[in-house]
Amino acid sequence: MSISDVVFGFNVFVLAYFIVLNSSYLVLLYSAGRELFGFMHRARIETPDELMRSPLTPSVGVIAPAWNEEAGVVDSVRSLLALEYPDARIIVVNDGSSDDTLARLVEAFDLERVEYAYAEEIPTQPLLDLYRSRTESRVVVADKQNGGKADAINCGINIAETDLVCVIDADSVLDASALATSARPFVDDPDRVVAVGGIVRIINDCVVERGFVQEVRLPRAHLARIQVMEYLRRLPRRTQRLEPDQRAAHHQRRLRRVPARRRGGGRWLRPTHARRGHGADRPHAPPPAARAA
Amino acid sequence: MLHLAIIITLLLFVVIVMLVGTLIFRRVLIGQEEARQHALYAELRPLVVGWLGEPDRLPPEGLIGSMDRRRRDVVARLLARYGTMLRGESRQRIIDYVADQGFVEALVQDLRSWRSWRRGRAARALGDFGSARAVRHLSGLVVGDRDPSVRLAATRALGRIDDYKSAAALLIALPTNRVPAGVVAQSLLDLGPHAFRALVSACSDEDVVARRTACRLVGLAGTGSSPDGMRAARTVLQARALDDRDAEVRAAALRALALLGDTTSEDVVRSALTAEDPAVRHAGADAARALYLRALAPDLIDALARELATDRPHWRLVRSAAHAWAQLAEDLDPRSVPEPVRDRALPFLREAAAGADRELRT
User: DSSP letters along B121-138, please?
Assistant: First the structure.
């Protein structure tokens, strides 16, 4: 076999590769076009305000686990309070922070400790105290021993007594209509929809005032810019359940099924939201068991 | 082989160029269409607002007679929008106008289109117009259309047409499971008084989904109905809460009785607190609290203790029973809880007492 044969064979291989690649892109483009067309027309048919005024709208518990988030936790909770949804409760779980996360929350929302019987349906690290806000009846703050992000989420699920739960990071900012948009598929197709995803954007270098994105900008840091691309290409997907001793996923993509026994049918919910990119995002400390290992 | 690969490559290239060209061409067309529509909106909106703003005024020149498709489309959208916002005489004028000008007929024609988006859009517009003539056609769509989004649009449209036939059509659709029960329920709720009598009847329906939905809605829709209607509703709901073979129906009936403020259902609630299904007991505890049935305080403690004695208690039921007890009992004495589960009950009793702003006896 001569070199020219090898070169020729390689060229054919490259050609075939690109034919297959571009053909698959065409198929994807076609199916995306069809879906987009349908989406645009469905948007015209839908009546978006219906959920907002209905007494049948499912209640949503927004669970925000927080570990050493003193810098942004108050703004994040403020942005959650601004969500346009008729029946949403904000459950912040302070996962044994060593900084002033809890103190900032107590001060900002005039929290008071309340008597609470913690029903540990999902086993978690002990709950130390539960606080309710005197000024914002929708805000509940759970203070617990450190157990990792998964454990904090499980604690939030134990406390939430809502039809749906939505899990976000305490350093994330949700779009005002995120809950209404996310809850819609549960109403429209309750038999098949068990979870929804959303579009995640990087908030670094965007202008955020009191929990609202005022101006959208690209991050200055190269690494965070790459992360923008990563989020753009990511498809929403279903994820497996978090185990209490599992180290929390880096970007908290995971949603937690609410035990069916508690709610007459498990529901998951994840919103459309913006979050901090690389550097501003860190997983919670590993649970004690993992640390010992 | 090589020739084939080159041909395929060229074909791909042509397809991609055509695709990009089509997208650009389409974008230009859409832009032009949007500009035309903006101009038409600017021209027609003042006419429509002026007409609807003055009672007894006939439609102006620009809104009657023959119109081209684009103009009709804009007028229809404007009227559909105002149709959902207005009530009374103004809404009736819109209903009459769209019927006289042939809009309803055209939309009914669109309901037969092979394009699903066109059917869905027509269904929504008919609902916005509140046209009673469309009920029959929309009913067919609710159960018969192959596209789920069209079925949803037709269901929601029926909820916006104030006609007793809409309620009947929606109740027929419930057991078919072609549309989620929650969406049908919302449409029935939107109908308000027009649906109340039909809902009371549906509480005794053969189908379990229909009974569940109807019982749930009677409580929400019934507060503004006549005394006779309320009496009939209470009787039916009490019967469902006591005897229905489906636990969810019983629970829904109990919650509806609580919403209607029916304090005569003490025996029904007491019976619910001893029911086998935890959902019924939970609804019973909530109803006892909502109706302020003080005589049921001992029954609530029994329900709480029985639940705590199980291996896997339903915590929401335990919490509800404790809170109801703390509201209703004369003396918050934890010793009324049997010894074996007292320690387990104490945190819940403390929480409930604090919630009711009362002291738990030590």
Answer: HHHHHHHHHT-GGGHHHH
Distance from the Cα of B129 to chain A's closest Cα (Å) equals 14
Q: What is the pLDDT of residue A63?
A: 92
Global confidence as pTM: 0.74
Bridge partners (DSSP) listed for residue A127: A144
Longest dimension (CA), chain A: 85
What average pLDDT does range A217-245 have in this prediction?
60
Cα-based distances in Å from A147 to A102, A116, A151, A288: 16, 20, 5, 7
Q: Which helix (H) or strand (E) segment is A128 a member of?
A: strand A127-133
Residue pointed to by tokens 């064979």: A9
Question: In the structure encoding, which two tokens stand for residue B100, read together?
Answer: 């006289």
Q: How far apart are CA B203 and CA A165, in angstroms?
A: 31
- Across the interface, of B189, B316, B354, the residue whose CB is closest to A56 is B189
- The distance of A188 to chain B (nearest Cα, Å) reads 6
Measured between CA atoms, the residue of chain A closest to residue B356 is: A115
Is the Cβ–Cβ distance between B311 and A121 less than 8 Å? no
Range B296-317 average pLDDT? 91
B351 CB within 8 Å of a chain A CB: yes
Instruction: Give B237's pLDDT tier (boundaries 50, 70, 90).
Output: very high
Lowest mean pLDDT segment, chosen from A183-187, B210-214, B293-297: A183-187
State the average pLDDT over residues B202-217. 89
Cα separation, A108 vs A75, in Å, equals 10
Phi, psi of B322 (to 5 degrees): -65, -45
- CA–chain centroid gap for A234, Å, is 14
Residue A194 has a pLDDT of: 84
Residues 6+ apart with CB under 8 A from B145: B116, B119, B151, B154
Instruction: Spell out the residues 6+ positions from residue A133 whose beta carbon is closer than 8 angstroms to its own.
Output: A109, A110, A111, A112, A139, A140, A141
Name A225's Cβ contacts closer than 8 Å, sequence gap at least 6: A218, A219
Return d(Cα B339, Cα B312) in angstroms, integer. 19
What average pLDDT does this structure show over A195-206? 77
Predicted pLDDT at A246: 36
Distances (CA, A) of A46 to B123, B156, B266: 11, 9, 43
CB environment A55-73: b (16+ within 10 A), e (fewer): ebbbbbbbbbbbbbbbebb
Look up residue B86 and give its DSSP letter. Answer: -
Q: Cβ distance B148 to A189 under 8 Å?
A: yes
DSSP class of B296:
G
The SS3 call for residue A144 is: strand
Q: Kindly indicate whether the ipTM for this predicted assembly is greater than 0.85, answering yes or no.
A: no
User: Distance (Å, rounded) from C-alpha B15 to C-alpha B219?
Assistant: 60
Averaged pLDDT, A1-5: 86
Chain B residue with Cα closest to A18: B9
Range from A133-137, B93-97, B251-255 carrying the lowest mean pLDDT: B93-97
Q: Which residue has the tokens 């001569």?
A: A2
The residue assigned the tokens 């105002």 is B82
Helix (H) or strand (E) holding A55: none
